[in-house]
Amino acid sequence: MKKLIITLIAAVSFLIACSAEPEPISYGKDNCEYCKMLITDSKYGAELITQKGKIYKFDSIECLAAYSDLRNQKEINTMWVVNFSQPNDLINVNDSHFLLSENLRSPMGLYLSAYKEESSLLEIKKQYGGKKINWNELVKYVTEEWN
After folding, report:
1. How far apart are CA 95 and CA 44, in angstroms?
2. Residue (of 32, 58, 34) closest to 46 by Cα position
3. Using an 8 Å Cβ cutoff, are 115 and 85 in contact?
4. DSSP string, 62-77
5. pTM
């Protein structure tokens, strides 16, 4: 019985450690894994969670894109970005809509922002201009700009 309890505790601990859910970014305390800068702007930020459950935090979408492009894609479990329209709200990259607008400077200067709802992106786009892009276009853009 004691052995069973220990096994169950170990299994539950492992599952918790391998969670694919993001954790809140501590603005003003957490550093970006890619550029090492302090993460300070709550309208921006991102997280990458590995298959082993390790969480890496980023100060911008462009840092996440650059970092993820360097990783073995099989090691990545999930990626999350901050919803520009609702700061501190992390949304899965696969459910996100991205805007490239030279009137909205992101922390690393590539003018990228993310939105949960396409309607929110279109409202911001109407106000600031820009172009809607998908994740693959975003990674390509970051790679071209930074190489």
Report:
1. 16
2. 58
3. yes
4. HHHHHHHHHS-GGGEE
5. 0.86
| Tokens 């071209």 belong to residue | 144
Per residue in 29-77, pLDDT tens? 999 999 999 999 999 999 999 999 999 999 999 999 999 999 889 999 9
Tracing tokens 């490239």 back to the chain, one arrives at 100
Strands of the 76-82 sheet, one edge to the other = 55-58, 46-50, 76-82, 90-92
* Integer Cα distance of 66 and 62 in angstroms: 6
| Residues ≥6 apart with Cβ < 8 Å to 13 | none
Rounded distance between C-alpha atoms, residue 122 and residue 139, angstroms: 21
How many residues are given for the chain?
A: 147
